[in-house]
């Protein structure tokens, strides 16, 4: 409880654990205004459900903290919840709209909901459209293709042979 740590250089798994420990340590102060200040260094490990609850407290989170939140948690927040988290700092979101992770968050939001923030954010999903996400594949390896590629290479010949045998018999 008295430790002052800087978990910013920790792995995501460690940040998640530290957040849970800090949440437990400060649980008796959850309804006090100082709770946000106590939990602030550990928010990089906060799950979406806790960020959603925090958004109802109008905590005025600064943008530098916002962009270091867990990516999976950030992606689950609605524009209204982000507005609740950032509060007076909401206009900063517009300055970050072309940088990750804000850009990625914008892409999964409905444009109509983004428009309600009155920040001029663009890039959200239009109503009535389907978003098709193209999977990213690793770069092809320079390793030999192996038996599987050889089998696929021979597949047309094998199918043709099978077809000829079944026709002739």
Automatic annotation (TrEMBL):
The keyword Nucleotide-binding does not apply. Keywords: Cell adhesion, Glycoprotein, Membrane, Signal, Transmembrane, Transmembrane helix. It holds the Pfam family Mesothelin. The keyword Methyltransferase does not apply. Its main location: membrane. InterPro entries: Mesothelin, Stereocilin-rel. One of its GO terms (cellular component) is cell surface. One of its GO terms (biological process) is cell-matrix adhesion. The chain crosses the membrane at residues 145-168. It is found in: Membrane. Belongs to the mesothelin family. This is MSLN protein. The lineage of its organism: Eukaryota, Metazoa, Chordata, Craniata, Vertebrata.
